[in-house]
Amino acid sequence: MAAALCLAVSLTPWGPFALYPFTLFTTWVHECGHAIATVVLGGAVASITIRSDTSGLTRSLVPASPFAQALVASAGYLTASIVGCLLLTASRVDRRAKAIFRVIAAFMLVTLVLWIRNLFGVLVVAAWAVALLILAGKRATRGVAGFALGVLAILVTLNAVFDIRVLFFARGASDAVTMARVTGAPVWLWAAVWMAISVFLLVSTLRATGSRR
After folding, report:
1. Domain for residue 6, yes or no?
2. Three-state DSSP class for residue 116
3. Coil, helix or strand for 137?
4. How many domains is the chain partitioned into structurally?
């Protein structure tokens, strides 16, 4: 039902507007991937910016080694894919939904304090945190929370794949351009690698959760 709803909405003239908040959520996940990778490698995150055109930017000090820079550059798209697949797996059990929403909302509030520095980004992250806490509240039934988690999981997973597709045609600064500069391999190759990994994760997750059901 969640998949059918997402497909139906995407085919309507107002689909992009209706799905806009979910695209921004995926942008937040993407930028948090960069930030977390930076911290794990011993770097420092200065800020995260989420823009109204659904793009984002993480400003950070990363260790100078090519490996560290490549890992941080790859972390954005791959984190979005991994998070989407984890949400897909969790959405198969309704009773997990409220706890997952509380965890995500809490982490969003942490990033709001530590990293988000532009007004639009603050509004987006705060609004999502409030919405998730409402879905995790007593008034929301387990079925409603589970359905909402399914919608979020599907849209984050699909956005993670579709966002990589843009890299094949994009011009200017991007994570793939950073990878090309660090490794010497062409931009399209890294876009293809990230796309292949994301599709593999999605197919594997669907097969695994389907077989368990």
Report:
1. no
2. strand
3. coil
4. 1
Tokens representing 136? Answer: 């995790």
Beta strand ranges found along the chain (DSSP E): 44-50, 56-61
What's the mean pLDDT when you consider all of the chain? 89
Both ends of the chain: CA-CA distance in Å? 16
103-146 pLDDT, tens digit each: 999 999 999 999 999 999 999 999 999 999 999 998 888 888 88
Residue 54 falls inside a structural domain: yes
Neighbours of 33 (CB within 10 A): 23
> Which residues have a Cβ under 8 Å from the Cβ of 201 and sit 6 or more positions away?
81, 82, 85
Q: What is the pLDDT of residue 122?
A: 97
72-99 confidence digits (pLDDT tens): 999 999 999 999 999 988 888 778 899 9
State the SS3 of 40-65: HCCCEEEEEEECCCCCEEEEEECCCC
> Is 15 a domain residue?
no
pLDDT value, residue 211: 55
**124 domain residue, yes or no:** yes
Residues of the domain holding 110: 21-208
Q: What single letter denotes the amino acid at residue 191?
A: A
Find how far residue 14's CA is from the centre of its chain: 22
- Of the candidates 62, 174, 46, the one whose C-alpha atom is nearest the C-alpha of residue 116 is 46
